[in-house]
Each structure stands twice: as C-alpha cells, then as structure tokens.
Specification:
five-stranded parallel sheet, alpha/beta, Rossmann fold, 191 residues
Length: 191
Amino acid sequence: MTMKTLSLLVVDDDPVIRLLLCQRLTKDNHMVSAVDKGQDALGLLRGDAQFDALITDLVLPDMDGIAVLEVAKSLRPTIEALVITGHASVDSAVEAMKKGAVDYLTKPINFDELSLRLDHIAIRQGLAKDARDILLAKEVTEQEAASTIQALEMRVSELQDALTAAAAILRDGGRDQEDKISQALAILNRT
C-alpha cells in the first residue's frame, strides 16, 4: 500500500495493461485517469486536471512516449513521470531519464515494484511541499519582523522627539518651574 494518494495519468494503448494498471492503482487508493493515446494525455494535461505523476508507455499509436513525457514536463514541470515499455533498451531508458522521467519500468509490470516507485514519488512530493511551506513561513516571518522593526523604529523616533521637546522646555530659564514641569509632562503623556 502506498503512503499518499496520488493523482495519476496512465497512457497505454494496450487495453489489458491499461485496465490492470487502473485496477491496481485504484486499489492502492490512487486517483487514476487513463487514455490510450499520447494526444489524449496531452489534452488532459492542457486542461484543469491536476496530476502528480504520469505513467506512459514508450510506444503509442499516435506519438512516441518520450514526446508525451517531454511535452508533459513542459506543460507541468512538477509532474513526475514513469516510462513503461515492452521494448526496453539502455538507449531508450537513458533518453527517458534525460527528458525528465524519474523511472523506467519494463513489461510485464511488477506491481509491487511500481507501488514502491510511486511511494518514492509521494515521499519526494511530500518533501518538496514541506520545503515550500517552510520557505513560505520564512518569508511571512521575515515580512512580519520587518514590519515590527519598522513600527518600533517609528515609535522610538516619536519618543526621542518627545524627550527632546520636554528637555528643551525644562531647560527654558524664563519660565516658572511648575509650568515647565507641567508642559513637559503633557508632551510625554501624549506619546
């Protein structure tokens, strides 16, 4: 069982594999959308639906799975991508990773291995979210601290002005002592 529910987009032209993926991933509590063509997947990615991960076959009837991966990453840079294929080669695996895939699985699919890979995606996304939350909290704290410091600086300036004015009144030799004290206290009480 995976750690976090992920929203997954599955692209595979083989109806049996697509059905098996949907059943297993749904059983693991993931939200799954599945299509059989790359263009259909790109249409969903261009829409409002949000996906945590893309699972795409390497060979599709209308376009190459690497092309789906490449466009998906350009549309949604944070989407994680897994490439699956029955035609595995080192070159295709390297190409998939260069284009942004986080993993590469061969058919027949080992569903325990797939669940483990999805767990890793969920962990990475959780860590990325935590990092974003920490940065946001830091920015808010810095903004509040700057605002507090500015308010304190203004208050200190007001108090210094009041003290300067009160001191000037108290030093005035031409006034009555009680009058000077009364005026100085009045200035200080207003601040």
